[in-house]
Design a protein that fits this description.
The complex is a heterodimer of chains A (244) and B (268). Chain A is α/β, with parallel strands linked by helices and 244 residues long. Chain A has 9 helices and 10 strands. Chain A has a 5-stranded mixed β-sheet with strand order 2-1-3-10-4, sandwiched between helices. Chain A starts with a helix and ends in a 10-residue tail after the last helix. Chain B is globular and about 65 Å long. Classes of the chains: A alpha/beta (244), B mainly alpha (268).
Chain lengths: 244, 268
């Protein structure tokens, strides 16, 4: 559904023009859905479209009028960079993967290995979405790919996984630590062993076809700045380790 | 002069309308060749989605017909207080956004919902979602079809000694047949395309709950060819339903004009 919403936003954006009367350019930012809460907090003045990074990339490839692209991995923006669709990507921030359970914990899960039990309803993201790929990576590292038999749904993005667990319909799901923090009363977080945690790095780049490349570049620079990075950390994101 | 101008405007509007409505369908088939389409039919994703769609559609429409027909008959033939309220309640899912239907089904049938069932994420969930959004289309058409049945035939059957059940099956249903078939064709098509309620209530898992529309959604940013191929399959299926609908409608018309109902029975 979010994908439809994004398309509608795009239509609205093209119809409405992009420069406001005051001369401030309103940028259209396509960002991974795990950035849903933090980006508008850092800068509420832009137009955001959140979704699975792969979906947004497909839309940009099809010519969607985005100025900025922020992905929940580095692979997708690097692929777009190789095609000349975006400028060289920077590392925006880091995150980590956690296992979440509904507060009532109907399947009585107390560790990741409990996922192996036959009656567990596990929800993960589709492997095409970064969080889905990270989930598979974790399960492979922990030699637990057999729990994939307990998957009852493969969702389109991380927020869909979060919703199914927060509603209590699924017994467990893998999401980013920052997503789990948005519904603290509804989900319990189980942390993964340090050795199994994937390196979740967000890549951000200016869309080459943007009509506001200068404004987009300064927006990107602002996001990498001290104040914005402090906001990211206050939402549970991890400090940047690599400088772009 | 003015007449010519009007004609020109109407013609332009007609051509624009036709072009606009036909172009996306044509575009699918210009992007996917018949060979690709046929080859994609053996793609496991497409294959599984086709099976899931077929299974859930058949079950859902059986449910719609079995429960919807008597419901429509009762609502069409009885007059009682609160009848229009009931009809409105039956029609409500038609105007609900599918996403609302999905969340409603989840809080009704979900584990944490009113009825505490374990239906979500199963094929039953897909079937229920499809029945929920498509059923009202059939019931609405069926009410109209039963209302259009001349009550003198029903009364005649009753005075001739046929019980209510026999009257329903032998008189009311055959006379309303064309309308029922048309309603069912619309419900079938709507159910086949069901997306929003399904993805929220049943999730999406290949081979289990991933129907053709959900497979299009999942394939969209992975493999554009698969997306187009499933799109092509759905266009063909939907066109087949539409043709069936046209046939059902013309059948009703021929029933009404042929007047064979009034012909005296020759065999006895």
């Amino acid at each position: 559904m979010r994908r439809l919403g994004a398309l509608l936003l795009v239509v609205a954006a093209t119809a409405g023009g992009t420069a406001s009367a005051a001369g401030h350019v309103t940028l259209t930012v396509y960002a991974a859905s795990s950035l849903t809460d933090v980006l508008p907090k850092v800068d509420p003045g832009e137009r955001y479209s959140f979704g699975g990074s792969n979906t947004l990339a497909a839309q940009i490839t099809q010519g969607a009028p985005a100025d900025i692209f922020a992905s929940a991995n580095l692979t997708i923006p690097e692929q777009l960079y190789a095609k000349g669709l975006v400028t060289r990507p920077y590392v925006l921030t880091h995150n980590t993967l956690v296992l979440i359970l509904p507060r009532a914990n109907p399947a009585r899960i107390h560790s990741v290995t409990d996922l192996r039990r036959a009656d567990v309803k596990l929800v993960i993201a589709d492997s095409a979405v970064p969080v889905g790929a990270y989930t598979l990576q974790v399960l492979k590292t922990m030699q637990m790919t057999d729990v994939l038999d307990n998957v009852v749904s493969r969702e389109a993005d991380v927020r869909d996984v979060l919703a199914k667990v927060a509603l209590g319909e699924a017994d467990a799901g893998f999401v980013y630590a920052t997503d789990a923090r948005t519904v603290p009363k509804r989900v319990t977080v189980l942390r993964l062993p340090v050795w199994a945690r994937p390196n979740v790095a967000y890549g951000i780049a200016v869309v080459t076809a943007s009509k506001h490349r200068a404004a987009a570049a300064s927006y990107l620079k602002m996001l990498l700045g001290k104040r914005a990075q402090a906001t990211f950390r206050s939402y549970g994101f991890l400090p940047r380790r690599t400088s772009g | 002069m003015r007449r010519v101008a009007f004609f020109a405007v109407a013609l332009t509007a007609t051509l624009t309308t036709l072009g606009f409505l036909v172009l996306p369908v044509v575009a699918i088939f210009t992007h996917v060749s018949p060979i690709t389409l046929v080859r994609q039919l053996s793609n496991p994703v497409v294959d599984d989605a086709l099976v899931v769609s077929a299974k859930t559609t058949v079950l859902a429409q059986a449910l719609v017909l079995l429960l919807g027909t008597p419901t429509a008959y009762l609502l069409a033939t009885r007059r009682f207080r609160g009848r229009s309220l009931l009809v409105t309640a039956v029609e409500l899912p038609l105007v609900l956004p599918p996403a609302v239907a999905g969340i409603g089904l989840l809080v009704a049938f979900g584990r944490m919902g009113l009825l505490h069932t374990s239906i979500p994420f199963t094929q039953t969930a897909v079937t229920l979602a499809v029945a929920f959004v498509s059923g009202p289309l059939y019931v609405r058409a069926a009410i109209a079809a039963f209302e259009a049945v001349d009550p003198t035939f029903v009364d005649a059957a009753r005075t001739l000694g046929a019980g209510p059940a026999r009257t329903f099956f032998r008189v009311a249903v055959p006379l309303a047949g064309g309308g029922l078939a048309a309603g069912e064709a619309l419900a079938f098509a709507r159910g086949l395309g069901e997306f929003g309620a399904t993805i929220m209530f049943a999730g999406s898992l290949q081979h289990v709950t991933q129907t053709l529309p959900l497979a299009i959604y999942a394939a969209f940013d992975v493999d554009f060819d698969v997306t187009l191929a499933i799109g092509g399959v759905l266009v063909l299926l939907s066109a087949a339903v539409l043709i069936a609908l046209k046939l059902a409608t013309s059948w009703t018309l021929s029933l009404q004009t042929s007047g064979f109902r009034f012909a005296p029975s020759t065999s006895n």
